[in-house]
Write a structure and sequence with these properties.
single chain, mainly alpha, 302 residues, 55% helix
Length: 302
Amino acid sequence: MAGAEDFVWPGADTQDAEPSAPSTSAGTPAPLTAPGVVPPLMPGMMMPGMLPGMAMPGMMPGMMPGANPLMMASMMNPMMAMMLGGVGGAAGMAAAGEPKAEEPSKVETPIDNRVRELCRDYGIEDRLMRKLNDVMMRRPDTFEEDLVTVRSRLSKERPDIGVLITQLDRGIFVTRSNIHPDMMAVVNKYKLDDRATQRLVESMRKRKKTMQEDLKAIDVRLASAERPSGLLMTLLQGLDTTGKLPVAPKSLGLPGSYGAEREEKEKERPKERDRDRGDRGRDRERDRDKKRSRSRSRGRRK
């Protein structure tokens, strides 16, 4: 059995020895490598010329060639492993904790002081105040008049700010400056409320060709009404539905109403009775004349 001194270490000085092809245990020659090229190492093997316990530069003692130094160090030092894990976790937490860039918020239109005062006077909440301000700011030409009209309507019984905002937004908000003079005459004559005035303007805008005739017919029907605004709402509903103004209620006794027609018929009946009586009287006189003429003719014959 060969001793340590007889063992030829890999990479030992072999100048006196003639190079020969290494062979396997089975006698098959192993592949040769080019001169000066280190043959590939298996895991756990050391470089040629290295003694056990020696390490390559930058390696820790006992480290396998090709291993990650930090990984090997963390395996041998649990504290270092915890520190390395903490560094990675802290980096991840820092990345996750970074605040996202805030999206630019929409610039809100500042509330006009006059609108704010109006809403404060009538207890209008902030959400509706902002909507009212936005729609009114889109109507700069009529802002002052709109403000006066809105205040006037809010001072009436049971005002609806939501309806006013919708009318302003749709461009159908009625002020005295945008009402036709003929319609304004009817409004003033019968002191129509805001709802009836708004409805009248909306209906007449759809019937510009027949507006004059419609207003005359409406004037006739409202002449004897105790509540003109309520009657007008009913008439306009029928007008918008059928295209014709409904006849006036019986209680009004107006031309074209059922009550008026009945009264006219009642007035005509006495005249018809007088005519019938006159006709019957004439018939009787004729019968008498005939009888007299007959009796005279008989007396002459005798």
